[in-house]
Structures are given as C-alpha cells and as structure tokens.
Design brief:
With 239 residues, the protein is mainly α. Helices cover 72% and strands 0% of the residues.
Length: 239
C-alpha cells in the first residue's frame, strides 16, 4: 500500500532537506532566492484553477505549500518564527476579521457587507488614517495591472475619484486622441507618458465595471494566440 504522509511528516521532510545531511540545493536557499519559485508556482496554480484541472490543482497546491514551508523553515533556523506562528497568525486573523461568524451580536448578510467589515478591521489593525496610507499598503511587487486596479478601487470606494462610466469612457477617448495628435506631430518623447495614462484609464474603467483587468487581458492574449494557431493549422494541416 502506498504510504500516506501526514502534515507533521511533511514538516520533518522539509527540515531534513535543510538539515546537515540534506539536499545541497535546499540548504542553499534563502527567502530571496526562493522568490522566483514562489511566483512561478503561484502562477501555475492559477492556470490549474482557470482550467478547472482538479488533479493539477491538487499538485500545484502542494507546490505552493512547499514554498510556504520552506520559508517558515528558513525563518525557524534563524530564530525568527516557525510554522506554528504562521498557522496561529492566520487563524487569529481569520477569527478577528470574521466577528459576524465567531462573535455574537453582529449581523452580516451579504458579501459586500463582509468586505466592508473586513476593510474596517484591517484599517484599524494597520492604523490607517488616510487614503494614501491605504494605497501605500498595496504591494509594490504586484503586476502593474493588479496594483493599479487595487489602488483605484480604494479611491473609488472612498469616493475620491470620478465614478461615472460614460465620463471615464470619454476620458479614454480623449487620451487616445491626444496620443494620435502627439504621434502625428512627431512628439515621441511624450508618447510613453500618454500610453501610461491610457493604460491607467483602461484599468480604471475595468474597476468601474468590476472586471479583473489582469484576467481580461490574459483572455484577450489567449484569443490573439489562438487566432494565429488557427491560421497556422489551416495553412499546415496535420497529416
């Protein structure tokens, strides 16, 4: 019968890999050296989720978990924290940010209300007073589309930016017209700035329509690739 490993045994395996007689590669890893691995494994998990590939999802969740355990083990070796603190931290956070579930006296009926409660508690925890402080907390390492949309949503929620979809579309059209004018006039120095503004306005429009800009762009990219795949398959059919 195939052995079924437990969570505790997995922790021991990670510790052994990092131990004196462990794997040379694993022993050399640091928090920073593992960053590319964490990013890659996370994106592979996203692909499995997008494709509803349950078997691959199971595998990729394991790969992401391994990255979490490796970071916890490295921190434990440095005397910073262990997986116990990681588990306790997230458990504590979940209980505190769901008072409508774990405490009596609060009624929350919709997902929107849950989001509002979560945000209020998070702002209190992080001691955020201003909108800028909230914007600064959005991770700068996020892909530009994701970071931009998260920041824009904060501004929209705080009612500190125009939320009229038609006006937003008009602004986007004006930006494109401005880019066209600059290009015709040969003002190439400012084109990068104009492209940035247009991308910003497109993402903002996505936020207004509650569309994930990152996913929307990915879907369009796949359609673009599939168009060329269709052309090539038509031109060079398989024997």
């Amino acid at each position: 019968m195939e052995k079924i490993y437990s969570y505790e045994e997995l922790l021991d395996i990670i510790s052994t890999l990092r131990g004196e007689n462990g794997c040379p590669w694993d022993k050399e890893q640091t928090h920073k050296s593992l960053i590319p691995c964490l990013v890659e494994e996370s994106y592979e998990l996203v692909e499995a989720l997008e494709n509803d590939d349950i078997k691959l999802m199971e595998e990729e969740l394991g790969d992401v978990l391994m990255q979490v355990l490796m970071h916890a083990q490295i921190a434990n070796e440095a005397g910073a924290f262990s997986m116990k603190e990681v588990v306790n931290g997230i458990a504590t956070k979940l209980v505190e940010r769901h008072p409508h579930v774990f405490k009596e006296g609060m009624q929350v009926e919709t997902a929107e209300q849950v989001s509002e409660v979560w945000d209020r508690i998070k702002q209190k925890e992080k001691k955020e007073i201003t909108l800028v402080q909230s914007m600064d907390r959005v991770a700068k390492t996020l892909p530009a589309l994701m970071r931009t949309q998260k920041v824009q949503k904060k501004a929209i929620k705080a009612q500190q930016t125009n939320s009229d979809q038609i006006k937003q579309i008009d602004q986007l059209i004006q930006g494109l017209e401005g880019l066209k004018t600059q290009y015709l006039q040969g003002q190439k120095v400012d084109i990068e700035s104009e492209i940035g503004k247009i991308l910003f306005e497109v993402v903002k429009l996505s936020a207004f329509f509650d569309i994930n800009a990152e996913f929307a762009l990915t879907k369009s990219l796949e359609k673009f690739i599939n168009r060329f795949r269709y052309i090539e398959n038509s031109r060079f059919p398989e024997d």
